[in-house]
Amino acid sequence: MSARIASLEAGSSPDTTVNAIIDFSKQGFGDTQMFGLLARRPELLKRAASMFAYFLAGQGGLIETELLELMRLRGANLNACTYCATVRLQPVASAVRPKEQALGLRDISRMTKPQAVAALRGTVKSAELSPREAAAIALVDRITVDPHGVDDALFGELRRHFSEDEIIELICASSLFTWAGTLNTALHVETGTDSPYGGQLAYA
Predict the structure, then answer these.
(1) Which of 172, 169, 177, 175 is nearest to 62 (CA)?
(2) DSSP structural state of residue 7
(3) How many domains does the chain have?
(4) What number of other Cβ atoms are within 10 A of residue 157's Cβ?
(5) Quick one: 53 and 85 in the same domain?
(6) Degrees, nearest 5: CA angle 139-140-146
C-alpha cells in the first residue's frame, strides 16, 4: 500500500526552516514522512512541529519524555495508526523498550480502530508500570476511545500522581498524538525507504 499523498524529502523545500524541521524529524523519529507530508503546507508544519517539540523534544513540557512516548505508543495501537505504531522516538527508544510489553502492544496492521480497541482491551500490565505511568496509560485508554470515559474515579487517580497543570498537558499530548494518528491513517502515510523501519505499511 502506498501513501495517498507524497511527502517532501529533506532539502527539497525552498524554505530553510521547513528543511530543518524535516531533518529534525529524522533525528526524532528516524523517519521524515509525516513531517514531510505536512511540509507541503509549510505554515501548518511549523505550528504542528512546535507542539511536538514542546512535548517530545524537551522544549518546555512538564511531563517526562519517556512517559509521553509510552502514552504515544499505546494510543497509536488503540487508534490503529500503523505509522505511529511503527516509528519510535529515538532519543528515548532504548529506555522505553523494556516497558513496551507492559503496554500490551499488538500488530495492528490492517485493523480498523474498533478492531484494535477490542484486541487491546485488558492487555495493559499495570503492575509492571509505575503508579504514575499506569494512571497516564489509563487516561490514554479512556480519552482515545471516548473522552466521556474520563470519569471522576480516573480523574481522582490522576490527581494522586500529577498536578493539575500536568493533567492538562497529559490530555493535550494524548490529543495531539490522536490527531497525528488520524492524519497518518487517512492518508496511509508510509515510512521512508531510508528509514530503519523498512517496507510498506498495511492499513485497514
Answers:
(1) 169
(2) P
(3) 2
(4) 16
(5) no
(6) 90
Task: For the beta carbon of residue 56, count every other beta carbon within 10 angstroms.
Answer: 22
Domain boundary among 46, 61, 76: 61
For residue 133, CA distances in Å to 34, 46, 61, 124, 178 come to 27, 30, 16, 11, 18
Please tell me what DSSP assigns to residue 200.
Answer: -
| Burial (Cβ within 10 Å: 0-12, 13-18, ≥19) of residue 109 | middle
Please indicate, yes or no, if residue 200 is contained in any of the structural domains: no
Across 30-58, average pLDDT: 96
pLDDT above 70 (res 1): no
pLDDT tens for residues 135-156?
999 999 999 999 999 999 999 9
Residue 183: in which H helix or E strand, if any? helix 164-186
Residue type, 7: S
CA 133 to chain centre: 16
Whole domain around residue 36: which residue ranges? 14-61
| 191 in any annotated domain | no
As a whole number of angstroms, the distance between CA 87 and CA 164 comes to 30
> What is the pTM (predicted TM-score) of this model?
0.96
